């Protein structure tokens, strides 16, 4: 591999779209039900110009959609698309990691509500075939890794 190449993968492509701080905070706020520009700005602390750019980028990527709620003046709300809703487990996993490893971070515990009860929530990856929880040591690449050290002959 030459010095200018990089490993092509969906992680890199995803980070190009949502890997910037304000982008994921926008998704967080939409998940929490904050829909309007000013509310998102106040909840995230994002500068106006940066927030406007991030909202446009996320809309162009299909993560959120704008819905007009006022004609005069024209005003819009923002809503997660199905693709944006698929980012919620990513946020929950980041939150869980932060709660565990960054004790000074503000905590906003989420609960799973059903049948009149609330339960603690933990983000987990599981195998779609056997249902076992996934840990990093159990994973392998399904294709040869061009960056891996060759096995001794």
From TrEMBL:
Q: Which UniProt keywords apply?
A: DNA-binding, Transcription, Transcription regulation
Which GO MF terms are attached to this record? DNA binding
InterPro entries membership: HTH_HxlR, WH-like_DNA-bd_sf, WH_DNA-bd_sf
| Signal peptide segment | none
Q: Which residues form the HTH hxlR-type domain?
A: 9-106
User: Is Ligase there in the keyword field?
Assistant: no
Name the chain's protein. Helix-turn-helix transcriptional regulator
Q: Which organism is it from?
A: Goekera deserti
Q: What is the lineage of its organism?
A: Bacteria, Bacillati, Actinomycetota, Actinomycetes, Geodermatophilales
């Amino acid at each position: 591999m030459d010095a200018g190449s990089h490993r092509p993968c969906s992680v890199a492509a995803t980070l190009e779209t949502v890997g910037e701080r304000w982008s994921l905070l926008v998704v967080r706020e939409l998940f929490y039900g904050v829909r309007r520009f000013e509310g998102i700005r106040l909840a995230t602390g994002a500068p106006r110009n940066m927030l406007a750019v991030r909202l446009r980028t996320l809309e162009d990527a299909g993560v959120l959609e704008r819905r007009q709620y006022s004609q005069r003046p024209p005003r819009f709300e923002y809503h997660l698309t199905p693709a944006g809703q698929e980012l919620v487990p990513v946020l929950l996993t980041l939150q869980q990691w932060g709660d565990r490893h960054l004790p000074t971070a503000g905590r906003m515990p989420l609960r799973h509500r059903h049948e009149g009860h609330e339960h603690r929530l933990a983000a987990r990856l599981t195998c779609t075939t056997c249902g076992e929880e996934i840990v990093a040591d159990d994973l392998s690449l399904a294709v040869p890794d061009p960056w891996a050290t060759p096995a001794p002959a």
